[in-house]
Amino acid sequence: MNLFDDIDLLYLLREFDRAYRLAPYGGSAAIRTHMRRVRDRISRSMKDNPLVETIAPASVPVTAHLARALDNGFQDSSESFVRATKKIADRLFWQFGYDKISPTLAKKYGYADILGPSGFVKADDLALGFVLFAPGSVYPTHKHDGITESYIVLSGACSQNDIGVFRSPSMIFNAAGATHTIRTSSTEPVLLAYAWTAEPQDLAAHKMTFTRKRKKV
Predict the structure, then answer these.
(1) What is the CATH number of the domain that holds 176?
(2) Cis before 57 (ω within 30)
(3) Which of 55, 65, 145, 186 is the most buried (most CB within 10 A)?
(4) What is the per-residue pLDDT for 209?
(5) Do 66 and 91 meet the contact criterion of CB atoms below 8 Å apart?
(6) pTM confidence score
(7) How does 38-53 read in b/e, with b if 16+ C-beta sit within 10 Å?
């Protein structure tokens, strides 16, 4: 099947495009440039009606919270994005992305790709997808060398580096190589849409690692 025939996926990618077109950038030239780059690469990836890859869905423990996160998102300003996400929720391949992950984090975190090297639609310089956190999560300090990253909050509330609280439709921006730690509300899950932009060699070579070694108990 090609993208223009996969209506649910097509509308979802349009929601990503819309979010990165309309989200406020707060006067930041770096964020505005990133948003434009995401839009341009989405447009290029969709232009020729690409083939949609067949990916077997998979779950991780945190996906038990997905229905709640989606329900919460229907009440926020990102409602149309959340509704488009729900349409393909049963097709998503959720994973951890780390060779080693603590038992605690394995219960509270997962991500799913939509577009990118391992997404439904292939791209070598852009990755789009979702990150889901259970209530009371702490995502340890980490960074992405060579990759510029942003999150759009679809539901729930989270903080980054203990600076401010982000709710829908806030954008969280991380320049390439910037270290960051994410914490979530203790009462509700958090669903984020993410975009990574990078040169193809950096995106292909990226390996998810934490920047601090965990203390042995």
Answers:
(1) 2.60.120.10
(2) no
(3) 65
(4) 55
(5) no
(6) 0.92
(7) bbebbeebbeeebebe
The answer to whether position 215 is within a domain reads no
Residue 213 is assigned to a structural domain of this protein: no
* Residue 147: closest CA among 15, 19, 44, 38: 38
Domain count, the chain: 1
Which one-letter amino acid corresponds to residue 110?
A: G
Does residue 82 lie within any of the structural domains? yes
What residues make up the domain containing 47?
3-205
Taken in order 92, 122, 24, 133, the sign of the CA dihedral is: positive
Any idea of the CA torsion for 3, 8, 121, 205, to the nearest 10 degrees? 170
Q: In what order do the strands lie in the sheet with 109-115?
A: 94-95, 109-115, 126-133, 190-198, 147-155, 171-174
Which tokens in the block code for residue 29?
A: 């030239």
Judge whether 154 lies within some domain: yes
User: How close are the terminal C-alpha atoms of the chain, in Å?
Assistant: 50
Kind plus residue range of the DSSP H or E element containing 107:
helix 103-108
Sign of CA dihedral 101, 192, 142, 188: negative
